[in-house]
Amino acid sequence: MSKALTLPRPKLSRVLPLACSLAFAIVLSGCGGSSSGANSVTGKVTYKNGPVSGLVVFVYGDSKEVSAPIQPDGSYNMVNPPPGQVKIVIKPMPGGTGGVTPKAGAPMKDAPSSEGNQNPPPPLKYQNQASSTLTFEVKTGKQPHDIPLD
Q1: Domain extent for 125
Q2: Dihedral sign (CA 71, 74, 75, 78)
Q3: What is the pTM assigned to this prediction?
């Protein structure tokens, strides 16, 4: 008859620190493993002390664009913009006074609309990259940035 092989039990003092370290690493990886998700820029876009309608567009040096709609109160919230120097363009909403059409291939039903927003569009000077004089440096984290138009 053969004897069953029994292994010695590991001591709790050796296993517990390893288990705690593993659990801590898992928790940290789930709580912001990437800082890019924490980036945001918020503020208000105003012209003559009142809100405008449209989109805030950040244009990067490589021509990449990220945008956020301007709410009826003039506020905007740019979620997850990459860090870097940007030129800011304020585009009117499709369907509004001075509006632009969406990019080719984008369905109109998915395009933001100025319907229900009685705010004026931004001045022409800020509606394209060549004439806009607005610049900003996006940094990691949350940043406030109001955009007064003159």
Answers
A1: 36-138
A2: positive
A3: 0.64
